[in-house]
Amino acid sequence: MAATTRERILDAALELIQRNGFPGTTVTAIEERAGLSPGSGSFYRHFRSKEAVFRAVFERELERAQRHREEFERGPVDEPQDALTRRFLQQLDYMAKVGPLINLLAREHGRFPDLTSRIGDALVDRGIIEEAWHLTRDLPAGPGHGDPRALLTVVVSALSGYHLVQEFFGRSPADVAPDRFAATLAALITASTRDQDGR
Predict the structure, then answer these.
(1) Domain of 131, in residue numbers
(2) Distances (CA, A) of 198 to 3, 18, 73, 107, 195
(3) pTM for this one?
(4) 131 & 170 share domain
(5) Same domain, 105 and 13
């Protein structure tokens, strides 16, 4: 199905703002990149301003990010370490999928603090709370013990750091592939939990 003009404008704005920043992106450039006649005013039939399209891009990308999170593995498991490894790999894949939103946020967070706050709440805070609940429910013999929100904060920080190093340098840190990283993180968590439980 062909993209609507509005979607093409959003795609063009996302690409250009990531590349040139908000101040360096013009309405005319967005029109041209979207396949519209530059300077024709076609943009304004869909958005009243450059800020309006920027906010619409954020809303769309946030909605996509939330849909991606719904794809995570859920449900009780027999082997917590294997399940955690799979979930951590899903989290790394998720971070790659929400990359455009994170790039926008990193580049323009000072310009739009209200959006920064919303994204932090939706992607980080609520994500940690939701995952802590799932781990407590689905993996009762593993990382659900103790302080699951603190544990998930550590996990998210580790996953984010790994992802950012990959993005920045274009390769896995110390050539440790994602599957090795995820398996090691899962092993650390399940081992420390077993120690706490005296198993």
Answers:
(1) 59-197
(2) 57, 50, 28, 47, 5
(3) 0.78
(4) yes
(5) no
CB burial of 20-33 (b: ≥16 within 10 Å; e: otherwise) equals eebeebebeebbeb
pLDDT by position in tens, the chain (length 199): 567 999 999 999 999 998 998 999 999 999 999 999 988 888 999 999 999 999 999 899 889 888 888 888 787 788 888 988 999 999 999 888 888 888 887 787 788 888 888 888 888 888 888 888 887 777 765 555 678 888 889 998 999 999 989 988 999 999 999 999 999 999 988 875 554 444 4
Q: Are residues 38 and 94 in the same domain?
A: no
How many CB atoms sit inside 10 A of residue 3's CB?
12
Q: Quick check: is 53 in a domain?
A: no
Q: How far is CA 97 from CA 28, 148, 187, in A?
A: 28, 25, 25
CA torsion 22-24-29-33 (nearest 10°) is -60
- In whole angstroms, give the CA distance from residue 136 to residue 146: 10
Place of tokens 């790994």: 162
109 shares a domain with 90 = yes
